[in-house]
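in:
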């Protein structure tokens, strides 16, 4: 039976009575219109497109068909159904100072304090929305909240695997460096840390060895492909401090075993202008000129860009205090809260699709107090969602990653 567990029950007065929780980054891709939402997707939804060429011909008194064939193709939204279910027994509240808020009567112990109940419902809803955001972009394998059986690739992994997408890596010397070792404390040895700063985010690839990230316990996950906030510890070493995917929990990164070699790739204030210059030059002009085209970047790249703007400002008043505009040469830069580190996606929102049964499902949490029905003194909460993501034109996407 699920119950509340209290780590301390000391009564310290009521001046600050209330409930608090750690801050979370909002999930807002849909609110910003970065995806084309298709509602009422209960089963496979087909996205059709048709195209043909235009041939300018010699004049002719008789009709002469240009001889091309109009091509119709289709892609799909295959929805995956998943649920959130939680049951709580509230009587343990009576063992804490919250008991003052319970109504008289022994059975009232189970009904819960109204403001705590509301607080927890809203907290669960926020976390459900964030889990969905991760799921849409990163896929099931990179969404720690997802434990359902069905596969869910996510937009970024699908785009990375698709043929026809214009793909760019971070293998150049200005954006990557070889590491000669990573020890079990997460200390990485490189030839020089001169271009790195505390708080930068590095992506680890090309790992040789058995090192595992044990941040979430158990046997851990491969460090290969993970990204970390770092602290520079010497002229030739830096420490992996926190897994970038733990941005909402702030858990310190822990490791087991070690690696004898790896590659650390990064976008930071030292290279972000060069990276964006290269990205801009490689964007398809036909896509770049569309009103719904955006460059989507993770938060740390946005911060690096703001820092680089301030560093480049010469004799500019308030260069380090004014907000910095998030666009590059007129192309909007969208800061993505729950995303893959060191990744830039260039796409039109009309080319990225999110299929849902009802968009509001992620904001609906059904709660039932079971005593009137089953005589069980528990509260049950449940949410049910259905979603699918896909893109249509691979050749109109730009993708940069480590």
């Amino acid at each position: 039976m699920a119950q509340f567990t209290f780590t301390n029950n000391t009564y310290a007065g009521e001046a600050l009575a209330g409930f608090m929780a750690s801050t979370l980054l909002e999930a807002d891709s849909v609110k910003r219109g970065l995806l084309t939402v298709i509602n009422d997707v209960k089963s496979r939804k087909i996205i059709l497109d048709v195209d043909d060429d235009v041939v300018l011909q010699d004049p002719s008194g008789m009709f002469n068909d240009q001889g091309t064939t109009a091509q119709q193709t289709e892609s799909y939204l295959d929805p995956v159904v998943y649920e959130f279910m939680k049951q709580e027994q509230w009587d343990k509240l009576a063992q804490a100072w919250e008991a003052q808020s319970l109504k008289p009567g022994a059975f009232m112990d189970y009904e819960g304090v109204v403001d705590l109940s509301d607080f927890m419902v809203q907290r669960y809803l926020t976390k459900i929305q964030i889990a969905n955001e991760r799921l849409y972009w990163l896929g099931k394998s990179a969404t720690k909240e997802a434990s359902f059986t069905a596969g869910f690739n996510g937009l970024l992994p699908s785009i990375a695997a698709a043929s026809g997408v214009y793909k760019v890596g971070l293998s150049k010397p200005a954006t990557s460096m070889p590491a000669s070792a990573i020890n079990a404390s997460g200390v990485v040895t490189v030839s020089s840390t001169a271009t790195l700063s505390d708080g930068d985010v590095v992506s680890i690839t090309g790992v040789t060895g058995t090192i595992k990230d044990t941040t979430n316990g158990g046997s851990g996950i491969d460090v290969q492909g993970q990204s970390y906030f770092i602290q520079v510890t010497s002229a030739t070493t830096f420490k992996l401090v926190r897994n970038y995917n733990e941005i909402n929990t702030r858990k310190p990164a822990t490791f087991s075993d070690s690696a004898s070699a790896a590659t650390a790739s990064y976008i930071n204030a030292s290279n972000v202008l060069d990276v964006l210059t290269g990205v801009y030059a490689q964007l398809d002009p036909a896509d770049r000129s569309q009103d719904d085209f955006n460059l989507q970047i993770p938060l740390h790249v946005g911060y690096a860009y703001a820092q680089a703007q301030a560093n480049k400002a010469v004799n500019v008043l308030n260069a380090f205090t004014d907000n910095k505009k998030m666009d590059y040469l007129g192309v909007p830069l969208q800061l993505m809260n729950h995303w893959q580190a060191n990744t830039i996606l260039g796409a039109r929102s009309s080319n990225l699709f999110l299929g849902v049964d009802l968009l509001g499902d992620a904001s609906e949490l059904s709660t039932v107090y079971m005593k009137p029905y089953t005589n069980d003194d528990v509260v049950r909460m449940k949410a049910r969602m259905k979603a699918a993501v896909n893109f249509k034109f691979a050749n109109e996407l730009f993708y940069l990653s480590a």
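note: The two ends are 44 Å apart (CA to CA).
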